[in-house]
Amino acid sequence: MPTILDRLYHLHWVSPDLARSAQPYLGFYAAFLRPHGFKSMINLRGENTGARWWHAEKRTAKKLGIAHFDVKLSSRNLPSRGNLTALLDAFAAAEVPVLIKCSGGQDRTSLAAAMFLLMCEGPSALSVAEQQFSLWPYLHRPKRYQRWLRHFPAYAAAEAGELPLSIWAQSRYVPEDFATWLAKRGLARSFGALQAAE
User: Fold this and answer.
1) Would you list the domain boundaries of the chain?
2) CA dihedral for 60, 66, 71, 73, sign (positive or negative)
């Protein structure tokens, strides 16, 4: 049964192995995380050493025995090869159940959840993966430079083909090629820029 904190922090289960949420800005980290038995957490906002929330998150995860991963994604900029690979590597290394979270739990978590499904289940999961970009219940309402997000899973699935998604990301994914793919579909202005490689 959903708790008040689950609703407050926009928690949704994608599968028995993966949940998605917003940033627990108001605190109560342990009370939010503990009931669900998460073994791993992937922070899609990247390492933020100057932010109190990041330190609180790390401390609480350690206290609860939750492995913490930092992966920097942008909702407006196309992911670099390094950042996309880092996400898939985190999924491969994380013990389930896993929580993925960003700021609002609407955009970056939609992309990450979709990629998790494709990584685990292959191209046949594309239609289910694309449902992660729904207005309800995920509240994904893309702004002008966020419209590329919902197109990335289809592009990744088609380009990877029979190749494991992680291998494709690491060796063949080129952000500029995705930008060209978008432009050919009238979506040249669906993103802000290319994410800086890290």
Assistant:
1) 4-194
2) negative
The position carrying tokens 């994604």 is: 73
Q: What is the pTM of this model?
A: 0.95
Contact 102, 129 (CB under 8 A): no
**What count of other Cβ atoms lies within 10 Å of the Cβ of residue 163?**
12
Residue 198 token pair: 């890290």
4-194: which CATH number, 3.30.530.20, 3.90.190.10, 3.40.50.1970, 3.40.630.30? Answer: 3.90.190.10
From first to last of its 198 residues, the chain has per-residue pLDDT tens of 458 999 999 999 999 999 999 999 888 899 999 999 999 999 999 999 999 999 999 999 999 999 999 999 999 999 999 999 999 999 999 999 999 999 999 999 999 999 999 999 999 999 999 999 999 999 999 999 999 999 999 999 999 999 999 999 999 999 999 999 999 999 999 999 998 766
Task: Report in angstroms the alpha-carbon separations of 180 from 78, 148, 189.
Answer: 12, 12, 11
